[in-house]
């Protein structure tokens, strides 16, 4: 069974551009979580989608947005990129529902975003 | 705000010895705790979890201890191996909190 897949592996953008990151969850999982991991730091919660709806978002500006598609895959969009957006962006999937945060999250390998 | 933190950013252990990674949490409402392992170039991987109605849970070579009185969590790895070298994160969730909060991580270095 395939795990969580993320694309692209690496993404290089310049300041002010937009970035789109993609995530495919494990089959049967309806919850998708996005995290930002800056170099040497922990995981900062960005967004949680479940059953196509945004359930929660972290303390990030509105230029960080996303969506979840009917097949439960997800996109993270970052507009007006800033240098400090350079980080590893991790996607995780879990069995869904309101108790999703009590379910084990399975992570992809991440997308390394570099903003020049 | 509420946070999950770690006492030691880096831990060096001799191969074959036991490792203990500690984590302090500040949200007294937290009732679910997870340990993840992140190897270089990979996403975090689930190791073991524990709910607040338990004090101890054992897995294969790993044991998680939960002390709710002092809000402390630890991960014990028996007979540490080179493959255990990674960054370890503790994470917590509280009932009603719509997210899982991760600590900053502890890097475990295994000395051959």
Provide a descriptive summary of the structure in words.
The complex is a heterodimer of chains A (116) and B (112). Chain A has strands spanning 5-7, 10-13, 19-24, 31-37, 43-50, 53-57, 64-68, 74-78, 87-94, 106-107, 111-115. Helices cover 0% and strands 50% of the residues of chain A. The model of chain A has no long low-confidence stretch (mean pLDDT 93). Chain A is globular. Chain A is an all-beta fold. Chain A has no helices and eleven strands. With 112 residues, chain B is mainly β. Chain B has no helices and eleven strands. In chain B, the strands form two sheets. In chain B, strands 2, 4, 5, 9, 10 and 11 form a six-stranded mixed beta sheet that branches. Chain B is globular and about 45 Å long. The N and C termini of chain B lie far apart (40 Å). The chains are: A mainly beta (116), B mainly beta (112). Chain A binds chain B through residues 4, 33, 35, 41-45, 48, 55-56, 58, 90, 92, 101-102, 104-110, and chain B through 32, 34, 36, 41-46, 49, 89, 91, 93, 97-105.
Strand percentage of chain B lies at over 45%
Q: Kindly, what is the distance between the CA atoms of the first and last residues of chain B, rounded to a whole number of angstroms?
A: 40 Å
Specify the number of helices of chain A: 0
**Which residues of chain A form runs of ≥5 with pLDDT under 50?**
none
What's the helix and strand layout?
The complex is a heterodimer of chains A (116) and B (112).
Chain A: E1 5-7, E2 10-13, E3 19-24, E4 31-37, E5 43-50, E6 53-57, E7 64-68, E8 74-78, E9 87-94, E10 106-107, E11 111-115
Parallel strand pairs in A: 2-11
Antiparallel strand pairs in A: 1-3, 3-8, 4-5, 4-9, 5-6, 7-8, 9-10, 9-11
Chain B: E1 4-5, E2 10-14, E3 19-25, E4 30-38, E5 45-51, E6 56-58, E7 62-67, E8 72-77, E9 86-94, E10 101-102, E11 106-111
